From TrEMBL:
EC primary class: hydrolase
Organism (species): Artemisia annua
Coarse class of the protein's main subcellular location: endoplasmic reticulum
GO BP annotations, alphabetical order: carbohydrate metabolic process; endoplasmic reticulum mannose trimming
EC number of this enzyme: 3.2.1.-
Keywords for this protein: Endoplasmic reticulum, Glycoprotein, Glycosidase, Hydrolase
GO cellular component: endoplasmic reticulum quality control compartment; membrane
Gene3D superfamilies listed in its UniProt record: 1.50.10.10
Name the record gives this protein: alpha-1,2-Mannosidase
Database matches in SUPFAM superfamilies: Seven-hairpin glycosidases (SSF48225)
Single annotated GO MF: calcium ion binding
Localization annotation: Endoplasmic reticulum
Protein family (similarity comment): Belongs to the glycosyl hydrolase 47 family.
């Protein structure tokens, strides 16, 4: 299903096997593909998972990476399509640690944390080319990816700075999202308006 560039899209027609969306990246629709290829290799020791991951990872580094950031690109041509950061992409530094690419993980993680500090929590979508939060995706549904990447980087480096990042994440959750019944998703990161919802992945992964 890969393109000739070893890239994958984000949405398949399960009946025909045809790609519906050709724009690809490391965020929604494809993030778990990369994450569980390497975690399946670690868990099961299957070399095929590792070979699939390596070719996919190298393609991401070649076609999506722009300094410490990752934009999206057309899986067929490699041309950039969307210049945006999404909260789901924050898993990537943790994945890079598992792959042994710790220096690159550190650079990307710091950019995610910079955006997180800017708003107090990480917005669902941030437009890199305009340096602003997406006008219709201003929410923060308590995603755990940045916390997970912070954990992996601390375990890999023992740099106390990552402990400080972890503490900042906890303090921000307590300050902005803690309510009587648990923790609430943020409807709008620019106003910190909350909504009456807490996803199961918040408790499972954070």
């Amino acid at each position: 299903m890969r393109s000739s560039l070893n890239l994958l899209g984000t949405t398949l027609d399960v009946a025909t096997g045809e790609w519906i969306k050709y724009s690809s990246g490391i965020g929604a629709g494809v993030d778990s593909f990369y994450e569980y290829l390497i975690k399946a290799h670690i868990l099961f020791g299957n070399e095929e998972f590792w070979r699939m991951f390596q070719s996919a990872y190298l393609a991401v580094q070649k076609y999506f990476r722009y300094g410490p950031w990752y934009h999206e690109a057309d899986m067929r041509t490699g041309r950039a399509t969307y210049w945006q950061l999404t909260s789901l992409q924050a898993f990537w530094p943790g994945l890079q640690v598992l792959a042994g690419d710790v220096a690159a993980a550190n650079l990307t993680h710091r950019e995610f944390f910079y955006v997180c500090k800017k708003f107090g929590v990480l917005p669902e979508r941030y437009l890199l080319d305009h340096q602003m939060v997406h006008p219709t995706e201003k929410y923060y549904p308590l995603r755990p990816e940045l916390a997970e990447s912070t954990y992996y980087l601390y375990q890999a480096t023992k740099d106390p700075w990552y402990m400080e990042v972890g503490e900042a994440i906890v303090n921000s959750l307590n300050l902005h999202t803690k309510v009587d019944g648990g923790f609430a998703s943020v409807r709008d990161v620019t106003t910190m308006q909350l909504e009456d919802h807490q996803h199961s992945f918040f408790l499972a992964e954070t």
